Amino acid sequence: MEGTLYSVGIGPGDPELMTLKAVRLIVEADVIAIPQGDNDILTAKNIVNQVVDLSAKEQLLIYMPMTKDMVAMDKAHDEGADAVIKLLKEGKNVVFITLGDPTVYATCIYVHKRVLAKGYKAELIPGVPSFCAVAAKLNVALCERSEPLIILPGSYKESAAFLDGPGNKVLMKSASQIAKVRDELKERELISHAAMIERCGLPGEKIYKDLNEIDEKSSYFSVILVKEGKFTS
């Protein structure tokens, strides 16, 4: 019998935000698939290790390059999917751990879709998204009553156009464009409506209630929340 791939969201960084289902599947898994970026820092593994000791588990490192080169990305995703499928054919269940939620800007989804497309069983297991953890840390609601919520990648060149529309906005993955995003907020007189958390729930967490104080070399794990009303907390 073939195994199943579970792409499991482990939350934004605080190990206490891992769900009971995530922990159970990790404990029961035959193999833990771990995303590895160009800097070799295994952030997801380090979070999980605080809850479940992975030392006795078979582990598969899946390279996820931080690049916009589609050829390089497709090659890495194909190789990752092939490595997972090899294990599934052996009857092993594979848990692919991923930060936040696997349905929100998660790189694991590209491997997940490839595994599904080739006819193998795969399930998505939700986790706490980073923007929910950021709002909670800032002690504010993401949306109230009939307020809309718009989630955008801060690096998306058209994101600024959405800032003029109604509702609250979440700007994720803003690090490489953080200065540009800040300047766009200033131009629209939204700087007092915005706050940012860098590395929410992770070591080195920083909270910025004033975006004029942000470091232009902020971590990739930076989330900006723009509210219709000014921040008061």
Descriptors:
single chain, 233 residues, alpha/beta, Cobalt-precorrin-4 Transmethylase, domain 1, Methyltransferase, Cobalt-precorrin-4 Transmethylase, Domain 2, 2 domains, five-stranded parallel beta sheet, five-stranded mixed beta sheet, 7 helices, 10 strands, 29% helix, elongated
What integer value in Å does the Rg equal? 19 Å
| Amount of helix | 25-40%
Query: End-to-end distance, in Å?
Result: 54 Å
Sketch the topology as an H/E string, one letter per element.
EHEHEHEHEHEHEHEEE
CATH homologous superfamily heading of the largest domain: Tetrapyrrole methylase, N-terminal domain
Overall tally of domains: 2
In CATH, the topology of the largest domain is named Cobalt-precorrin-4 Transmethylase, domain 1
Silhouette:
elongated
**Strand share of the residues?**
15-25%
Mean of pLDDT: 89
CATH secondary-structure class of the largest domain: Alpha Beta
Structural class: alpha/beta
Question: What this model shows, in words?
Answer:
With 233 residues, the chain is an alpha/beta fold. The protein has 2 domains: 4-125, Tetrapyrrole methylase, N-terminal domain (Cobalt-precorrin-4 Transmethylase, domain 1, 3-Layer(aba) Sandwich), CATH 3.40.1010.10; 130-226, Methyltransferase, Cobalt-precorrin-4 Transmethylase, Domain 2, CATH 3.30.950. It contains 7 helices and 10 strands. The strands form 2 sheets. Strands 3-2-4-1-5 form a 5-stranded parallel β-sheet, with helices on both faces. The longest helix is centred in the middle third of the chain and has 20 residues, at 70-89. The N and C termini lie far apart (54 Å).
